[in-house]
Structures are given as structure tokens and as C-alpha cells.
């Protein structure tokens, strides 16, 4: 599909549920840290903020609406960025837990993983010499024997409860080519809202497709075949693959996603001190490629979102 927009949407995934406190001192854990980093990322140029919550006491992933409520309203008051709440949570959460806050907040956008999959960073445990909290090591090592669950029934329920009932649109997270076909199935079933699909093509997660540029080209060609001109895509490169894969995606006509959920680094051996550092870096790259950065309101128009006041 040829480029259909003049500007590029930068998304920022602020903290996620994969990395643990021992991996980086700059990973935001508390509500204040998450809010501060999200606001700074928006000021740096992120039009969409993808948000997870963590237990304020020890940084473990949390689905508690009371924790979300300690930072989401503050972010919304301080920025005009699109608020994107995860429905993925973590591999240890039930669907009911993962949906609790999105159903309360009814945001403009939510993430939606397009299938069940092995999803793991367990080899990273071998590189950690000192853990900050007792939960971290078993959490990372335990990923080897867990799956992320999103069955067809789970996805159908999310589309109904959030999409149809709340007017929320989705960041469709596709970790492999098969996830594009899953998305096409729901399109064929008439369960997706009108307007462009926003497809996040993800490379580099153990259990999903590799971060090779050839794979990204193949995923885009597959999406072109399945969805024609009815989609916009974004690119997420996990870990050290973040900036190179995003640059390829932008050249192919896509949007980009950065943030400490996806990578803890700014460059080789250099931990990012904030999400905003990554936003500023990819923005520099995009602007050197003569690409313009979309504002939040431009992103809303491009993705047909219901608006921050809805």
C-alpha cells in the first residue's frame, strides 16, 4: 500500500509489564514516575501514549483500576495525547483483570493482541546479577512455561465490550503473520468498526516473528493483500532492534512506536533515561528522512478516533 498520510504518528509505550526494576533504574514504576515520563514523552512528540500500571510498592505489573486512576487522569489533564490503555496486561492476568480499567475508562484507544502465543524474555534472567525484588527472578524465568492467552472468543468479547459498546478503537498488535489473518477473520465476520484499522507490526519478541526487515516487508505485503487501503500500520521493534526496524517501517510508509516497554536502551550499551529520549531520537531520524510528525489531533483524524471528550 502506498503511503496514505503525510505525517507519522509516534506512539510511546511507557512501562509495560515485561521488564522488571532490576533491568533499568529508569524504568517507571510508581504512578508519579509513569505520569511524569508519559507527559514528557508527549511533549517530545508522542501523539499516542500506551499505558500499563505497576504496583507502587514493588513495581510488579498491576491491573488494579485504583492504580491506573493515580496517573491516567493526571496525564490526560497535562497533555492532549491519545490515551491508549492496554488490554494485554501480563501473561499472569485473567481477561477480567485485563479489562477492568479499560471498561471503566472507556478510552479512545486500547491495545488488542491478535492471538494466543508463547511470549517470553526468560533468557534475560541469565544476564541479571542482582535483583531488586523477590518477585522478579521467578517472574522472568516463569515466562518459559506460560502463554499469553487471547482466544478467538476473548478477542470477540473485547471487540464487543470495548469497540461496540464503548466506541473504543484498537491498536491491533500483530506479533506474527498469522495474527494478520486472525484480524482478517474478524473483518470478514463484520465485527470490526468502520474506518482504518491501526495495525502494530511487532518484531523481535521470543515467540513471535523475528526482527528482520524482510519479515516486516512480508507482513506489510500480507496486510496489503488482506486489507487493501483499509489500514494504517505502525512498527514496534523489541529491544536492540527498536530504532533500525522503526526506520525501515517509516520508509515503507508506516508509523512508529517507542518506549521503555519495548526497549530499555537508547543505543548500544546505553540505557535510556526516559521514554522521551527515545521519542526525541526517533523524531530526529524521521525528520532527517523529511517526514513530518503527527500531532495528537492529526492522529485522531487519521485513525477516526472518537475524541478525548467522548
TrEMBL record:
Keywords: Metal-binding, Transferase, Zinc. InterPro entries: Aldolase_TIM, BKACE. It comes from the Bacteria. The keyword Amino-acid biosynthesis does not apply. It comes from Ramlibacter cellulosilyticus. Pfam families: BKACE. PANTHER family: 3-KETO-5-AMINOHEXANOATE CLEAVAGE ENZYME, 3-KETO-5-AMINOHEXANOATE CLEAVAGE ENZYME-RELATED. Its cofactor is Zn(2+). Signal peptide: none annotated. This is 3-keto-5-aminohexanoate cleavage protein. One of its GO terms (molecular function) is metal ion binding. The keyword Transferase applies.
